[in-house]
Amino acid sequence: MLEFAEVQLHNRKTLFVEVILPLAISRNYTYRVPFEMNNGAVVGKRVVVQFGKSKLYTAIIESISEHAPEKYEAKYIIEILDDAPVVTSRQLQFWHWLAEYYMCNEGEVMNAALPSALKLASETKVMLNREYEYDKTQLNDKEYLITEALDIQPELTVSDIVKLLGQKTVMPILKSLFEKNIITISEEVSERYKPRKKTYITLNPVYQNPDNRRELFEILEKRAPKQADALLTYLKLSRQQKAVAKNELIEESGAGESSIKSLIEKEVFFAEHKTVSRLGYEEDDESISNFTLSGAQQLALDEARLHFEKKDVVLLHGVTASGKTQIYIKLIEEMVATGRQVLYLLPEIALTTHIIERLRIYFGGTIGVYHSRFNDNERVEVWQKVLRSEYKVVLGARSSIFLPFHDLGLLIVDEEHETSYKQYDPAPRYNARDAAIYLANMHGGKVLLGSATPSFETYYNARTHKYGLVTLTERYGGVQLPLVEVVSISKELKQKTMQSHFTSVLMADMQLALENKEQVILFQNRRGYAPVLMCRVCAYTPKCINCDVSLTYHKHTTKLHCHYCGYKEDTPSVCPACGSTHLEYKGFGTEKVEDELSVLMPDVRLARMDLDTTRSRNSLQTILNNLEEKKIDILIGTQMVAKGLDFADVTVIGIINADSLLKYPDYRANERSFQMLAQVSGRAGRRGKQGKVVIQTYDPGHRVIKQVIENDYADLYFTEMEERKSFKYPPFFRIISIDIKHKNPEILYNQAEYFTNELRKHFGDRVIGPEAPLVNRIRNYYIKTIMLKFERDGVSVVKAKALMRDVITQFQTTKLSKGSVVQPDVDPY
């Protein structure tokens, strides 16, 4: 018996797992698996491990072997959290590619990819889910102890719970409480996305009888004439449409909300609350639930299918309002019919909620939504449903590329030119459009890129036949592109016809639109009241104490704000430098536009849509609801208004100052200006009415403005490409930038010079810099940027990146590097 036990002991395997920790460490760490956990160790599962002296982390098993690490003694893993893997092998492959391509670590990719509830660490915060009622008698002793502690204290860290229970293995207990929906686990709980609700009115069937209705009218006309008006208006509207919206009934009848409420209380009317689109699409809208493609759309769809036979990526270049979404829907239907999954990427999920509703009409519960407005519990739920293939279609922002797809057949990137697809901080600094192409390739899927103003890189790839190219040159339904009028601010200032920041042309067009009960959108790409506060005597300007930028005055807080680090200070009434009281506001943002327009047009209903007005819970949805319900006459906004807005009654677009876009010191300035101006212009006249766009500028003869007027993307492209080629910019060259940061500017200078010289030893004149960026100090760190340009042909970028990693590692081992931060950014723009 003893001999048999000795043989068993000799034959049993000792397993080691290499894990990805949610930390920015350059190598993965190896742990030993306790023998009793051998069967549970599977790639993609989460394990609890100790890293460092005392910290616990949730790590992901990336590989399993029987080889112990050579340089250190492997610690034992503490616990295996999952019965089945939460991360697929394809995802791990994708993470590895992202880390290699974007020159970061797999731990940084894991941090970006996993919802925070799936990556518990010692510092992770745990809170009670106050919205959920549970039976405490169903909890075990340890679960009960945690919930009692959270009743007394609003939040606890995992470390606190370890101390509370007196044991290290608390992760499985927290996992159990999380799955029961009793606790919320998150570094930060985001606001909960709520669907748009709308109230519809129907008539009590009793009053469908003419005699009963006549009798009711006689009573109401004597006692409540406003209610009689409301009833009469309802009957008129109900002949024209299937359902009558409550807000439409109030507006048409002039009866007021109280009259409708009284009729509901008397059970003359019934009110029904429905989930509807925010941007003018209703569930029973024939054009959505049963649309027919136009001839141009059908031709574009056929071309796309044809290209997909030979190419993996196709660009759909269609003018604004050309009906690209309907083509997407047809392709999604075809892919879902084959049983494969679809990912539909959008740059601003909150501004395109109508697409969610449109897709749900077709695909019902098989469509999932994933974005930052979901709290952590909801994100985990979506993650699990994608993992179990319950969702066939997922609609989401850039982070949805990290979801655990099994068989991705089609990936749509809408508005592929948008800069919000690029992640700038923290690492990985990836571009979701480019990463999506690699992801689709891993699954053997296809990619459709859609835009009215494609990025030059994408258009170049389409013109050189790397991608397929499909064009749509006409708007859906034969609606004409908006008229564009350019107005010289200089000329109107000389003629003294300007009113505040508004030219006489824009004022007249706004007045005409409002008289016709139409709506206006004004675009000013700067938030706040005034970008600069300046002393008229000594020219003193308040600056941020942490960043090298002037502070912006915000009237609603009466404070000066830094838009980089969030620092705020009181607005001085006396110049701190010379004591003068002559302080002036220079420039203007959306807040000042709103303030001055309220004086010029006191009776007009104004609203502002920028980062300041959309921070709070559901504030963005409220603005969009009010615009759709015509409770807003003029909407003033930053670039948020250029993305995805689609309203029937917006007929005038005013661009307050186009020069702030055109004069930006960046090689992409003309491309970005054209895209922004064309996209903002595209919000006008989308449903049967030709809109008008007024562009105010000091430079009406600027080439880009002429190209916007003529909607001549091709001329812009060919002109800019000549310059790109001459000055070695993308798409002809690849760019990798490296930021070096330090709190001491003199030390930074020496570090940057040394580091640049080391790079030049390998890459010669491909290295440019070091240079100070436009804002050379952020959050007390001074910055120097080094740029490397590599030819597309004849240079191995993989080898170049490996060399750069070596130079960074070598630099970080020197004493000179002390206190520095080195941040590579691949394809930075």
From TrEMBL:
Gene Ontology biological process terms from the UniProt entry: DNA recombination; DNA replication initiation; DNA replication, synthesis of primer; double-strand break repair
Reactions the enzyme catalyzes: Couples ATP hydrolysis with the unwinding of duplex DNA by translocating in the 3'-5' direction; ATP + H2O = ADP + phosphate + H(+)
UniProt cross-references to CDD domains, sorted A to Z: DEXHc_priA (cd17929), SF2_C_priA (cd18804)
Domain Helicase ATP-binding: 305-472
UniProt-listed Pfam families: DEAD, Helicase_C, PriA_3primeBD, PriA_C, Zn_ribbon_PriA
Binding site for Zn(2+) 1: C535, C538, C575, C578
Signal peptide: none
Record text on subunit structure and interactions: Component of the replication restart primosome.
PANTHER family: PRIMOSOMAL PROTEIN N
Protein name: Replication restart protein PriA
Naturally occurring in which organism (per UniProt): Mucilaginibacter gilvus
